[in-house]
Structures are given as structure tokens and as C-alpha cells.
């Protein structure tokens, strides 16, 4: 079923399941990787799910590059846009340019 064909109640249920799945994935990651669990403390909530996926190797190239650049810039998109670390291997492909 396409999301546009769903009722508001069905969409709400789908979003709740997605949030629960994300919370479970984060909890599992913290349990399985206690040495990396502390690295999640400074990650803004809106990036947490993608960040955990990047640490688990579950992202494709473009989202993985975006997460690395966000991590390097302390999650400041403007800093990525104005990045002057031209010797970085990702500089030519950085997002938000």
C-alpha cells in the first residue's frame, strides 16, 4: 500500500512502529557496542537514527558521507557548506554545498 493511500490512523501507526524500531535498534547498538555507546551522546536527535546506521555499516555511500561530514562539523550544516579542509578525501563530494 502506498503511503498516500493510507488513512491518517494507518500513517500514525506506521510512524509509531518506525520510532519504536529505531529506539530498539539504538538500544541494541548500545548493548552490543558499549565502547561506542558514548559517541551517541553529542548526536542531535534528528540525526541519531542515521548516525547509528552509519556506525553499523548500514548506509549507502551518499548518506554515509553526509553523516561523516555532519559528525566532523559537530552537526552544523553551515560549517559543512563553508568547509575549508580541502585535504579531506570527502571535500569534493561533501553535502550542503
State the total count of DSSP E strands. Answer: 0
Largest sheet: none
Task: Describe the global form.
Answer: globular
Q: What's the oligomerization state?
A: single chain
Instruction: Give Rg in angstroms.
Output: 16 Å
* Helical content band: 55-70%
Low-confidence stretches: none
| Mean pLDDT figure | 87
Query: What fraction of the residues are assigned to beta strands by DSSP?
Result: under 5%
Based on helices, strands and strand pairing, what is the structural class?
mainly alpha
- Determine the number of helices (DSSP H or I, runs of at least 4 residues): 5
Order of helices and strands: HHHHH
End-to-end C-alpha gap = 36 Å
Fold and architecture overview:
- It is globular and about 50 Å long.
- With 97 residues, it is mostly helical.
- The protein is built from five helices and no strands.
- The longest helix is centred in the first third of the chain and has 25 residues.
What labels would you give this structure?
single chain, 97 residues, mainly alpha, 5 helices, 0% strand
Write the layout of secondary structure elements.
Blueprint: H1 8-32, H2 34-37, H3 45-55, H4 61-72, H5 77-81
Helix pairs in contact: 3-4
Short précis:
By secondary structure, the protein is an all-alpha fold.
